[in-house]
What we know:
The structure holds three protein chains of three kinds.
Chain A: H1 2-7, H2 9-36, H3 54-59, H4 68-73, H5 77-111, H6 117-129, H7 132-145, H8 152-176, H9 180-188, H10 193-222, H11 225-230, H12 238-248, H13 252-277
Chain B: H1 4-40, E1 43-45, E2 51-55, H2 58-64, H3 76-108, H4 112-123, H5 130-141, H6 146-153, H7 167-191, H8 195-203, H9 208-237, H10 240-246, H11 253-262, H12 267-298
Antiparallel strand pairs in B: 1-2
Helix pairs in contact in B: 3-7, 3-9, 5-7, 5-10, 7-9, 7-10, 8-9, 9-12, 11-12
Chain C: E1 4-14, E2 20-31, E3 36-40, H1 47-55, E4 62-67, E5 70-71, E6 82-85, H2 97-107, H3 112-125, H4 141-153, E7 159-163, H5 171-188, E8 191-196, H6 199-205, E9 208-213, E10 216-221, H7 223-228, H8 233-238, E11 243-253, E12 256-261, E13 266-270, E14 279-284, E15 290-291, E16 302-312, E17 316-322, E18 328-334, E19 349-353, E20 360-363
Parallel strand pairs in C: 3-8, 3-9, 6-7, 7-8
Antiparallel strand pairs in C: 1-2, 1-4, 4-5, 9-10, 11-12, 11-14, 12-13, 14-20, 15-19, 16-17, 16-19, 17-18
EC number (chain C): 7.6.2.11
Subunit structure (chain C): The complex is composed of two ATP-binding proteins (PotA), two transmembrane proteins (PotB and PotC) and a solute-binding protein (PotD).
Domain ABC transporter (chain C): 4-239
Amino acid sequence: MLDKILNSKIWATLFKGYGFLFLGFLYLPLGLIFVYSFNANSINMAIWTEFTFDWYLTIFGGASSQSSFDAAFTESPDRIFEVVKHSVIVALSASTVSTVIGTATAIALARYHFVGKRFYQALLVLPMIVPDIVLGIALLIFFVGAGFKLSLLTIIIGHTTFLSSYVFVVVSARLAGMDTSLEQASADLGAGPITTFRRVTLPQIMPGVVGGFLLAFIISLDDVVITYFIAGVGSQTLPLFILAMMRRGLRPQINALAVLLLLFTFVIAAIGLYLRSRKS
Amino acid sequence: MTSSDTILKRKRRSLILLLAPFTVMLSVFFLVPLGIMMVYSFLEPGLYGGVEWNWYPYNYGRIIGWPLNDYEEFEPIYLKIFLNSLQIAIMTVIGTFVICYPAAFWVSRMQGAKKNLALFMITLPFFANLLVRIYAWLLLLRPTGFFNTVLQSAGLIIEPLDLLFTNFSVIIGMVYILTPFMFLPIYANVEKLDYSMVRASQDLGANPLQTFRRVILPLTAPGIIGGSVIVFIPALGNFIVPSFLGGSKVQMTGNLIERSFLQSRDWPFGAALALLIMASVVVLVVFQLSRQAKAEARGVS
Amino acid sequence: MSFLKIASAHKAYKTPEGGLIHALDDVSLDVRNNEFLTLLGPSGCGKTTLLKCIAGFEDIDSGEISFEEQSLKGVPAHRRPFNTVFQSYALFPHLSIANNVGYGLDVTGVAKGERNKRVEEALELVGLAGFGSREPKQLSGGQQQRVALARSLVLKPRVLLLDEPLSALDRKMRENMQIELKNLQHSVGITFVFVTHDQEEALAMSDRIAVVANGKVQQLAAPTEIYDEPANEFVANFVGTSNIFSGKVVAKDGALLTIETANQRQVLATSDRFGRGDHVELVLRPEHLKLAPSGNGIPESCIDGTVEASVFVGSDLHLHVDVGKGRTAIVHHRHNRGDDGERIEAGTSVKLYYSPNAAHLIKAIGR
């Protein structure tokens, strides 16, 4: 009676209880950062003293009511703006380029037959499978050996390489669900290949393309490991900045910064997931 | 437009045009770098970083201890760290599996909008920044962290517990960041589990435990194995989690690689370690692909 | 001693909209030992629910299911001496044919030697000897069907429950399997409870048929009785095609009744259950309505009509005949080779007649 058991009240309650524990495991640690980010206690975050916005204000250069001891730990707002700017430049360029490349490749593989297609497909997802650290050092050796100066450009190139695979997978899934007779109908009605792509194929796969773009954007924005190896002195990104802050010690400013980053990525991810789940 | 030949040609031209960018990029910025890394792992490290172009198998010799020259020494610590990394990765796989398997059943029995919401909630943390998620566990586990403070104020302990810098804390961090990777493949499999199989098993006299072991588990095995592979790979090479939650006490191969590239500047040695990880990954992926091919041939997916 | 007995079983489901569906509404049924009993009804009538309750996959809300005088309340599916052949066959895809058939023996701890012997016997019984090492996906639908049968029969159940097992097969295969199933039931001597929505299948195979609709057993009888003497309008319409005329008995002469229908037509029927003044429904099967020969020798009770449509189905010509006042009668006219000389086309005027013995009367409801 497994299905009867699974349907029974006791098990339904147990499952529900477990489900909430599971969600709790996923969200409570993040919730903790959120709560801490408003705690004025700068000595021990785990002990609540009073509510404050200071940690957020210090990020944006607002006057801190805290001691000069804290001020010493606070990065200058200019620095934060700079690394955020770097991150956005990298994420925008890498995800735009990889969206174009990934989509083109997905269309080629979905609509054409050629020798070695399966092998090629396996090759395309390889960058997602190779451990980050391996890809990071391989790129580092390559860039240094080839005489590239480590900069935002090397980060963009590195990100584009593996993000194209992600976009390829997302768009391919969308194309797989698309009715090919629509394209044939368009051709039959007199549309050329470019018109057909623009007026029929693209609107059909648009949610996949946008979803792929957003996914690529977030992964690029969040990437630590690969960026860690191929970023130069003047090209620190936000995650690398947070990494450096964390290595120096846990300060309440990190809470505030983490919360802002979380909110930003969650909003984008939510849009992306919504677009992907939407049926045409 | 005069014959089918021109249509074929035109098709081929657009195919090449579509495939060219990824192919070029993949070759130049992925395959070539991996190849160079492989070559590097057999080169002599230069005195002040860089490499000498000499055949030099001793980078591997230092790790697994085959005949060495006068300068290099076999250090069992590297192998020990690699084995510990394997152990942590395997424990991470087990941890994520234990957490995700019941959760997949929980979600699969939901209906409509509730189910979509649950899936959304479970997928969302995947997008949270890696560092932020590790940082959260630092806040929870450190001596002045959440757990210790709560336990102390409840009077259960006097001295804070050493929750941080253990294999356990590293595994918890890994499980936390890799849970979505395990959940999604298992869920996909549990979702399409045919309940008439479960009913058939009971009907043929199997008790619930037998049904679980002989029917439900084998039928959801592809998802479990798929999830295990994609959890194991990033867990094995990870260096961020151990560097924060493991400190200097728990080292993984990833930390050794990081150090040889950014501190000791012994790139060939780092490359050799990276290849060790790559080799494990390749073995695993080949195993998974051949298993999949076999399953497809049998008509089970 | 009663064999398998279902006594005033009730079961209701909640719909997502909050309503209640009565899947079983006071169902009582006595299944006899060794019989081939068919539960026949449209989809959603409750027949599959009844089967699941017998198998033990679901509980009834009230009432009782008992086997050899022992209540089955609380007895889980794996402890009931019944086995099920599922609509989808439910063969385990990860096990070979032999391991599928041996599954029930394995989980109940039958010794290896005996297990293998019985698996082979069961496969032989269904004509699949030598197929043991194959995978389910390598077999055709009909073969999978046989494996499912073997898997259940190998456990020597007291009752075999079959949930629309032939619905996934094509027509030819289905007809073959009907005969095979019937023969199999005879040779193994196990009670079969067979669920189907296909009335031809039910008529062809069963010892008895229970027609189920709206969670109730409408009629439980042998196939000929179900067909010739349907208990109510639903059975008359669901099993075979019927022409039904409502009317009132206006004259009685021995067993011969004269019935006046709503449109003032007088028709004849024989019955000793009804008398003058009774409101009745007169059921006439299409094959009992005959076309009166033109010219002399016209039988006395005739119905005039005009052919609306004529459909050739091979053995018969199906005629839709307008008999006035918007009523259409369906006539199955046997087709003989060389008949095309006198084509019966739309617009042709015809006279219909029938033998009063062929008419079946049902008590009209609500009058």
